[in-house]
Specification:
Number of domains: 2
CATH topology of the largest domain: Thrombin, subunit H
Number of helices: 6
Largest sheet: 6 strands, antiparallel, barrel
Shape: elongated
Strand content: 25-35%
CATH superfamily of the largest domain: Rod shape-determining protein MreC, domain 1
Order of helices and strands: HHHHEHEEEEEEEEEEEEEH
Strand order of the largest sheet: 3-4-7-6-5-14
CATH class of the largest domain: Mainly Beta
Length: 277
């Protein structure tokens, strides 16, 4: 108590000044409408700026969570796409579109490590066998085809990128019925080659290139890229076709692992054909 009294005595002049100043300002703002309005408008602007900054920081912090939610929503939307279904009864499917059986499912995942500047490139995702992922499943991004699962652990999977010389993805060119194999032949993360297309087939620059769906890795029509350049190969009746990938592999972040519900059935049938050969 003595210390408080001593403090008040020591700073009594300053404290009296502060009290009088507050009274004067209060009277001024209460009597003059313009200064009062200006004061509160300025205060609101400062508060609004701080709240906007807080919202931006919050949005950044929860960006990954928001993207995961969007991926799950896209997964559910993909279940409604007709191309992801096969008809159980063709005779009745025209009458009742609900009589379909899901043939592809999408499992969302995030890329946690990747390469794109080597001869053979891979990337790692944070989803594994605990989510039903197996070897040789196709992997796509919201932009297009990006690879095939190479190895799997409980919580992770290594994916062989489309930027790999040993990967073969069957593809076709829109509007021409021309099909061939996607090959990564050069050290370019934006481009691949479409090989095996006869040069007597008319192909337009800018035509879209899609996965054919053979092997069951990807749904038929999954986008790969667009025809950027084509030239006849000297001495061969073939086109040299350069395809610009829809997905920039340097920016790959969120992907879906494609699960073919009928993959085992397809494999068994194709194995029997190979035995006959």
């Amino acid at each position: 108590m003595r210390k408080l009294i001593a403090f008040l005595r020591r700073f009594r002049v300053f404290l009296v000044f502060v009290v009088l100043q507050l009274i004067a300002l209060g009277s001024y703002f209460s009597l003059m409408s313009f200064p009062r309005t200006k004061f509160f408008n300025t205060a609101n602007q400062v508060t609004g700026s701080l709240l906007s900054f807080e919202r931006e920081v919050t949005k950044y912090v929860y960006l990954d969570e928001a993207n995961r939610k969007l991926m799950n929503e896209n997964k559910e939307l993909a279940r409604k796409i007709p191309e992801n279904y096969i008809s159980v009864d063709p005779k009745t499917s025209i009458i009742r579109d609900t009589i379909h059986e899901l043939s592809f499912e999408r499992i969302p995942a995030t890329v946690i490590n990747s390469s794109y500047s080597h001869k053979n490139n891979y990337f790692t995702i944070n989803a594994g066998s605990n989510k039903g992922i197996k070897k040789k499943m196709g992997v796509i991004s919201p932009e297009g085809v990006v690879g095939i699962v190479y190895d799997v652990s409980s919580h992770y999977a290594v994916v062989k990128s489309i930027l790999t010389t040993s990967i073969n993805i069957s593809a076709f060119v829109e509007g021409s019925n021309a099909y061939g194999l996607i090959k990564y032949l050069e050290n370019d993360p934006r481009r691949v080659n479409l090989t095996g297309v006869s040069n007597d087939i008319k192909i337009k620059k800018g035509a879209r290139v899609f996965a054919r769906g053979s092997g069951g890795y990807f749904p038929n029509g999954a986008r790969i890229g667009t025809v950027e350049k084509l030239e006849p190969i000297e001495g061969k009746p073939m086109w040299d076709i350069t395809v610009r990938l829809s997905q920039d592999m340097r920016k790959l972040r969120y992907v879906y692992v494609v699960k073919n519900i009928f993959q085992e059935e397809l494999n068994e049938l194709q194995d029997k054909v190979e035995e006959l050969e």
